[in-house]
Specification:
about 250 residues; alpha/beta; 6-stranded mixed sheet; about 25% helix; SAM-dependent_MTases_sf; Methyltransf_11; Methyltransferase domain-containing protein
């Protein structure tokens, strides 16, 4: 398995129009995001990347939403994703749509998100599955210079391992888009419905919802106990009659 971290420069797309069939991918992700947005609660939401910023989250109960990117026109803060200008435990939810594929250090990106995430916060992320028709198209030489094949695709179970190391619980996971986007939308939808059950593992896209689980640590203080020395107790059990006899004998 190749290491996730790389030193080569990866151009990150900041809009879905820069990705092949990006509008089709955005529609599929938007449908699943609309289902999960009402389940997210809190005060602050973080959207990392221009692809996350273009997905609407108006149905979400979190009103204050911040979009972080360098080139997206919908950004609110210009910053590096690996060095977020926020204090620890600032956000209740985070959207990470197709950002791990283009990250030079995906482990560092997840650790930085974990730093600004509150306990029991939600992390919603997506990406491309390399074991799919979309991933196999990346083997063609004329596709390697176009997104999404310019990035590195990771298997969903590998993403799950990274999340478990950070104490995240995967509460929902789905792999879909088995049939690539075609002009015949009706035929593609029918094939997707038929093949969704037996071939769900080879879907082109994955959608994961994870929740941060932090077990509170209770300090166990040492209990100091004084050891008592075992010594016989001298108890005066003499009766009044014995005292009288003792006095009489002493007088005589």
């Amino acid at each position: 398995m190749k290491p996730a971290r790389t030193v080569t420069h990866i151009e990150v797309p900041y809009t879905w129009s820069n990705v092949i069939n990006g509008e089709w991918v955005a529609e599929l992700l938007q449908a699943r995001l609309d289902e999960w947005c009402p389940k997210l609660f809190g005060y602050h939401m973080l959207k990392l990347g221009g692809l996350s910023a273009e997905l609407t989250s108006s149905h979400c109960n979190i009103q204050h939403q911040i979009c972080v990117d360098k080139f997206s026109p919908q950004r609110t803060i210009v910053a590096n994703a690996l060095e977020l200008p926020f204090i620890e435990k600032s956000f209740d939810a985070c959207l990470l749509m197709h950002q791990l594929d283009y990250a030079a250090d995906p482990h560092g990106l997840l650790r930085e998100i974990d730093r600004v995430m509150v306990d029991d916060g939600y992390l919603v992320l997506s990406g491309n599955n390399p074991l799919s028709l979309l991933g196999l198209r990346g083997l063609l030489p004329w596709n390697r210079r176009q997104a999404p094949w310019t990035g590195k695709m990771y298997l969903p179970f590998r993403i799950n391992d990274w999340l478990r190391l950070l104490n995240y619980e995967v509460v929902y996971q789905e792999t879909f888009a088995i049939v690539p986007a075609t002009r015949h939308l009706a035929c593609a939808a029918w094939l997707e419905h038929v093949l969704s059950e037996p071939l769900s593992a080879v879907g082109s896209l994955y959608f994961i919802v994870a929740r941060k689980r932090t077990c509170p640590l209770k300090l166990i203080k040492p209990t100091w106990k004084l050891r008592r020395q075992l010594a016989p107790l001298r108890i005066n059990c003499r009766t009044q009659a014995e005292k009288t006899c003792t006095k009489t004998s002493s007088r005589s």
